[in-house]
Design a protein that fits this description.
With 373 residues, the chain is α/β, with parallel strands linked by helices. The protein contains 13 helices and 13 strands.
Length: 373
């Protein structure tokens, strides 16, 4: 029996590699003679750089940038295609995982550090970029990235705005008179982890800012600020970039990259699945296993488990999902899977589940294999 194990990471707990390894460890206690293919995946968020760079035997580059609170940090990006292409994930320099829970504030957090990674690669002569969106701490519409590339965002007095999404309530104009000189020659392929617009009930602020630390009042204030930003941004771009699928990814960075670079947006899962030859592996296997930290209604919005399930269904393969927690109101997601198995029933509390996720995954995988047999 050949089993493809292709999960995403369990955010703030386990990398995709450790998720896959833990699942296989548990399955192997029952199915010792099976052939296992471990394919750690990502959807544009954490793990995108490592997955894509290793798939094509690239190299990692480290440089100094600023985190979402403008503190100096070191961050990495990948170089592929003999140094001609940079693979950058927003999570590396502007990620939620860089902040302690009590530091998270999407009203003021900035994506500036991600722009610094882009500028560093431009200075090295890179002109092709793959940017992974997902896992961001920000809700600034990509303004921080653009500021690092020398765009200026102006208020009604012609003065530069500060950092963070809430500042965009005062935006009246955009100045591109002093851009990084290499930016016009660069191309950007943007890997989105969700396909939402920037504004509205399904958009960045109202749908995702709570995960980044916003309360209800702050989420509504961010929505108002981004609506003002969308008007200025769409006028600047000459088209409705804020309404495009994926524009709201990573707190609106998708829309910003559409307006400020020659970007095209694609589902992050599709880019990574192609690089890893996922469909070929699924075509020749007997069982497919995937998973992510939390499965809920957002799983269907471009996340790894839904993409894996789609390919499994295409080739008539059964697919099982393991997760940290399962939201019973998960929409149509459950219909795609032969089973969804959560580890939270084994944990004493959320902290225990996060800390011991690898052990619990191995346990539920072994239990599944015994029952399945």
């Amino acid at each position: 029996m050949k089993i493809v194990v292709a999960p995403d990471s369990f955010k703030e707990s386990l990398s995709a590699e450790l998720v896959a390894r833990s699942i296989v460890e548990g399955l192997r206690t029952v199915w010792s003679d099976a052939e296992y293919v471990e394919l750690p995946l990502a959807d544009g968020g954490e793990g995108t750089v490592k997955t894509l760079t290793e798939a094509v035997h690239g190299e990692m580059v480290e440089c100094g940038v600023h985190d979402p609170l403008m503190r100096p940090i070191r961050a990495e990006y990948g170089l592929t295609d003999d140094g001609r292409t940079a693979v950058i994930e927003v999570a590396s320099a502007s990620g939620l995982s860089l902040l302690a829970p009590d530091e998270r504030d999407p009203c003021t957090a900035t994506s500036f550090g991600t722009g610094e990674l882009i500028a560093h690669a431009l200075d090295k002569g890179v002109r092709n970029f793959v940017i992974g969106l997902g896992g961001s701490a920000t809700n600034d519409g990509g303004v921080g990235i653009a500021q690092a590339l020398r765009y200026r965002f102006l208020d009604e007095r012609g003065e530069s705005l500060g950092s963070g999404g809430i500042a965009l309530k005062g935006l009246t104009g955009i100045d591109n008179g002093n851009l990084h000189p290499a930016l016009p020659d660069a191309t950007f392929q943007v890997a989105c982890d969700v396909n939402i617009p920037m504004c509205g009930i399904d958009g960045s602020s109202l749908n995702y800012s709570a995960q980044k630390g916003a309360n209800r009042e702050q989420a509504e204030a961010l929505e108002s600020a981004l609506r003002n930003y969308s008007r200025v941004l769409d006028a600047y771009a000459g088209r409705g970039v804020s309404e495009e699928r994926g524009a709201g990814a990573a707190g609106g960075i998708g829309a910003g990259l559409l307006a400020f670079t020659s970007a095209t947006l694609s589902p992050g899962f599709d880019l990574i699945a192609q690089a890893c030859d996922l469909e070929d592996h699924i075509r020749g296997c007997d069982l497919v296993i995937t998973g992510e930290g939390r499965m809920d209604v957002q799983t269907e919005q471009g996340k790894v488990p839904s993409g894996v399930a789609r390919l499994a269904q295409k080739h008539g393969k059964r697919v099982i999902a393991f997760c940290g927690t399962l939201d019973a109101s998960g929409g149509d997601a459950a219909a795609r899977f032969a089973a969804i198995i959560a580890i939270d029933s084994l944990a004493r509390d959320e902290a225990d589940g996060m800390e011991n996720a690898a052990r619990y995954l191995a346990q539920v995988a072994a239990s599944f294999a015994r029952d399945w047999t």
